[in-house]
């Protein structure tokens, strides 16, 4: 395929993915706005009003970046895992497998779809957040990078999950038992400085901690950890998961006999 | 001469140890209408899956218009259009979008894809349904949608895996006419089917696979000459009380007005009718007991199973 043909093919997957989640926006966009709105009310407004500032910012301001990023992570992951698994389950993944599209392009199309949903939901949740706290951006480039790379990383995660999934149960196991605990323990609602020394060290093994702190740095200018390390970890994971996804596609794991 | 398809020593062993293909060699000439037949589980769909890169082969080579599927995979894929046995499109997408998207996956810009999609959707009688969701189509329409989708990038080789399964006779015949037309226009077609009348009417060459091995690979006329005996059903004008002995033919009476006759290849129907007339038996109509190819197919498969 020529570069122009590859661009057409990539755009076809991306547009199909965007139309898919926009067609069912009540299931894909609205729930995040409602859930995150409840977090802002309960944790930010009701409980947060009783708490003192953290790193010099109000509790409400402090939790906004993490909650926005949580919505982006969940939705980027969910978009790819459900869409790709469904295409496997109903066999229409074969439309792509019989075409001359290179594997990297198939991966890029689905990941771009996940990023798109992550961004749409991130914007919607940010709009909801503006009812509770002013939307702050201290480092615009860092904000763009952390949102884009984190959405990309979890889209890749969703892709790998979908490749291995054999049943619908398999696409909810990782989000429920791995992703959600890691997100909640990644410091959305607290600073790891508030933890005992042992748990601070344990928290450092959680990659989502770095992403949430990078987001907080981009929006509020505060972070528990070195932001350069955070970006290095995010980029490192993106590279590793991309390479692994391409390897799975090349081998045809879960796709070809 | 470049073949549309060239397969050498193709083998496939599944992880559970099942040997689906035991080293088949096959070639299909460009422009041919080719039948790939075999009983259920013979290995036809496995072979098609390998040709279309949906199944990894264990050994052997496959070339599509000279492009090796190992070393020149994307060029090989560009030459193929596949109509699989199972419905494999997104049931929740509009019909026209399914066809347009497939063109997009081959790098065809949307405007051109739309023109082509509308052309094939119209050709295959889906025009009125083009904006509806695919899940609302009937079984026959879904099969035609898959044909439109397979043709939208204008492949040189169209592979149809049981395209008329479960389709009523009227639609089946219109599909035959459509396939004959695109074959006349130069598209090579490989067809698998369980309707052997379909293969006999449409195809010029044929291969039969049984238990992962090729047991026949020839042209249709040559194959049919292997039929030693043909069976006919004769409908009689008047009921027959008892069947008179007629030498040289194996005849059995199905009911008072129906006879079943097996005729050796070296005998002819004129002699039979003369004999019947001599005994005062009038024949109103006759038909083949089964399709000729079907008889031959059954015999070849039985012989192969026995061997």
Question: Can you tell me about this structure?
Answer:
The complex is a heterodimer of chains A (about 260) and B (about 300). Chain A is mainly α and about 260 residues long. Chain A has one domain (about 5-250). Helix content of chain A is about 75%, strand content about 0%. Chain A has eleven helices and no strands. In chain A, helix 4 (about 60-90) runs parallel beside helix 7 (about 140-165) and helix 7 runs antiparallel to helix 10. The longest helix of chain A has about 30 residues, at about 60-90. Chain A starts with a helix and ends in a 6-residue tail after the last helix. The model of chain A has no long low-confidence stretch (mean pLDDT about 95). Chain B has about 300 residues and is an alpha/beta fold. Chain B folds into two domains: about 5-225, P-loop containing nucleotide triphosphate hydrolases (Rossmann fold, 3-Layer(aba) Sandwich); about 230-305, Alpha-L RNA-binding motif (Alpha-Beta Plaits, 2-Layer Sandwich). Chain B is built from ten helices and 14 strands. Chain B has helices at about 45-50, 75-80, 95-105, 110-125, 140-150, 170-185, 195-200, 220-225, 270-280, 290-305, and strands spanning about 5-15, 20-30, 35, 60-65, 65-70, 80-85, 155-160, 190, 205-210, 215-220, 230-235, 250-255, 260-265, 285-290. A six-stranded mixed β-sheet of chain B has the order 6-7-8-3-9-10, with helices on both faces. In chain B, a hairpin with a 2-residue loop joins strand 12 (about 250-255) and strand 13. The longest helix of chain B has 16 residues, at about 170-185. Chain B is globular and about 75 Å long. The mean pLDDT of chain B is about 90. The chains are: A mainly alpha (about 260), B alpha/beta (about 300).
């Amino acid at each position: 395929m020529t570069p122009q043909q590859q661009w057409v093919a990539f755009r076809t997957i991306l547009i199909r993915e965007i139309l898919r989640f926009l067609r069912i926006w009540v299931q894909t966009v609205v729930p995040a706005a409602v859930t995150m709105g409840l977090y802002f009310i309960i944790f930010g407004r009701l409980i947060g009003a009783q708490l003192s500032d953290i790193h010099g910012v109000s509790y409400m301001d402090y939790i906004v970046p993490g909650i926005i990023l949580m919505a982006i992570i969940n939705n980027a992951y969910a978009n790819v895992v459900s869409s790709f698994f469904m295409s496997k389950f109903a066999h229409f993944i074969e439309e792509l497998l019989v075409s001359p599209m290179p594997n990297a392009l198939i991966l890029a199309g689905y990941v771009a779809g996940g990023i798109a949903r992550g961004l749409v939901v991130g914007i919607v949740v940010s709009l909801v957040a503006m009812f509770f706290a002013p939307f702050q951006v201290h480092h615009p480039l860092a904000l763009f990078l952390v949102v884009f790379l984190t959405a990309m990383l979890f889209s890749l995660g969703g892709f790998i999950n979908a490749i291995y999934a054999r049943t619908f149960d398999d696409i909810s196991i990782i989000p429920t038992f791995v992703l959600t605990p890691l997100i909640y323990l990644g410091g959305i609602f607290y600073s790891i400085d508030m933890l005992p020394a042992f748990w601070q060290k344990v928290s450092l093994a959680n990659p989502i901690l770095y992403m949430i702190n990078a987001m907080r740095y981009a929006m509020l200018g505060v972070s528990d950890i070195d932001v350069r390390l955070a970006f290095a970890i995010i980029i490192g994971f993106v590279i590793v998961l991309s390479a692994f996804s391409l390897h799975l596609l090349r081998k045809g794991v879960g796709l070809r006999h | 001469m470049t073949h549309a398809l060239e397969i050498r020593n193709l083998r496939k062993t599944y992880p559970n140890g099942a040997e689906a293909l035991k080293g088949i060699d096959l070639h299909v000439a460009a422009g041919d209408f080719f039948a790939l037949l075999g009983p259920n589980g013979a290995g036809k769909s496995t072979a098609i899956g390998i040709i279309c890169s949906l199944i990894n082969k264990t050994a052997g080579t496959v070339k599509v218009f000279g492009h090796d599927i190992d070393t020149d995979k994307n060029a090989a894929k560009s030459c193929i259009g596949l109509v699989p046995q199972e419905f494999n499109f997104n049931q929740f997408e509009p019909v026209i979008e399914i066809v347009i998207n497939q063109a997009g996956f081959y790098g065809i810009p949307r405007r051109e894809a739309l023109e082509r999609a509308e052309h094939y959707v119209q050709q295959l009688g889906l025009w009125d349904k083009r904006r509806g969701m695919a899940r609302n189509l009937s079984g026959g329409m879904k099969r035609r949608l898959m044909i439109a989708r397979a043709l939208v990038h204008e492949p040189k080789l169209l592979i149809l895996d049981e395209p008329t399964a479960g389709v009523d006779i009227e639609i089946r015949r219109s599909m035959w006419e459509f396939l004959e037309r695109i074959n006349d226009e130069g598209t090579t077609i490989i067809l698998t089917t369980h309707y052997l009348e379909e293969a006999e009417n449409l195809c010029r060459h044929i291969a039969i696979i049984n238990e992962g091995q090729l047991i026949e690979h020839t042209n249709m006329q040559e194959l049919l000459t292997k039929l030693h005996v043909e069976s006919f059903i004769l409908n009689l004008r008047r009921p027959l009380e008892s069947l008179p002995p007629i030498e040289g033919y194996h005849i059995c009476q199905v009911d008072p007005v129906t006879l079943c006759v097996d005729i050796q290849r070296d005998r002819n129907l004129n002699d039979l009718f003369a004999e019947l007339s001599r005994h005062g038996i009038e024949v109103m109509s006759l038909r083949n007991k089964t399709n000729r190819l079907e008889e031959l197919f059954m015999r070849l498969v039985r012989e192969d199973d026995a061997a």
